[in-house]
Write the structure tokens for this entry.
Amino acid sequence: MSMYFSKEHEWVKIDGSQATVGISAHAAHELGDITFVELPQVGKTLKQFDTLAGIESVKAASDIYAPVSGKVVAVNDKLEDAPELVNESAEEEGWICRLEVANAADVSALMDAAAYAEYLKGLE
Amino acid sequence: MEDLKATPLREHHEGLKALMAPFGGWLMPIQYAGIIAEHKWCREKAALFDICHMGEFLFQGDIVADGLDDVFTFSVQNIPVGRSRYGFLLNERGGVIDDLIVFRLAQDQVMIVVNAATIDNDFAVIRSRLKEGANLTDISQRTGKLDLQGPLSREVLVELFGPEIGSIPFFKFIKTTILGVEALVSRTGYTGELGYEIFIPAHKAVELWEQLLKDPRVAPAGLGARDLLRLEVGYSLYGNDLDENTTPVAAGLRNFVNLDKEFVGKNALVEEQQRGPERVKVAFKVTSRRSPRHHYEIWREGAAVGTVTSGAFSPMLGCGIGLGFVTPDASALGTKLSIRHERVEMEAEVVELPFYTGGSLRA
């Protein structure tokens, strides 16, 4: 399974035709206490970098973009009552949704973990 | 960017890895452990806030003869020595130049505590309304202010500085000796909890901060938690919920205005009260965990009726809460509102203040 990151700080783990999506630990830390996650509708079809979901923290409201094109097949409904899971475990328990991947080549527009770590250094 | 001012505690905040940000011209700590954790600590234990940025003016003289009694929306002369009062400094239009607290230190001496961003203007305005030669001094630079707020704040202060502090009633204060210097300890605050504002010479602020933080019941809290705490109990934030274009009548703060006395802006308030304000403040609860935010639009039945001035997710209520100004027809309790911003839309309902009623304020 491989993990990729977008410049907007989403992560995606690709497992065959399924992609699990969330926001990076860095993004969760920057947002501060997360108070609400607007989950996407199951069945919704998105193009890469379309607005997928929304996330709110005590500091700000932000959009989450689809890191790859696809159809939403599952959402992490634990986040409805416990959005703080994203702070506690952004890249595991705090996943946001699963997509049925439409185009495997989309990942070429993303970064791998090492490249993302470099990218974050550049933002400091 | 303009030069930011810093309190004597700046290095201590940085040492605690606080997130620092500009606030009213000052570089201030927004959070340490996290806004919600600090908020919870204040509601359950005792949270320590660096409030050295706020302004203090000292007046010495004859309150009536020097004109101070006509400066604010309440009578200074009627405040008993040892008590403080909250109210407003208004412009000719009745708009709020600042909200402030006046402490009656002695028959002929008062301290005026004002917001940080408005210090210079407040001082100039108050000065201009006093008799020529009246004795008003800006003592902000040499005055430190630390707030200890939360249900355990009384026992912490009593153990450290003696039993006298334990018997101060709400909105009263004492002068006492702390760390070998004269300090003013006031039973006031901005959180809805039992709490104290401690005024101490600025050069002693660091020592007091360190001593209080040694107590395991005390943790530092930043301006992020302070904003959440004050909103849950419905206190106004100057610059958001109050400004020079907003009157105390529109803001629902008529209780802090005495129309039986003279003050600048009185005629405008009387007129506004007679014809009814064009906009009025409402408090509203969101039906989800979504946060309304400053400048979001308020709609009712398909029409824009106003603007949000403060909003947040309330950890105590588990939903979004906010304050805003709307046309009077949309202000009745129970009115269904819709809060909108770009693609975000949330349903809300007008409710009574305070949002949170479980605080230890009057304990």
Observations:
- DSSP finds four helices and ten strands in chain A.
- Chain A has a mean pLDDT of 96.
- The longest helix of chain A spans residues 113-123.
- Chain A touches chain B through twelve residues (CB under 8 Å).
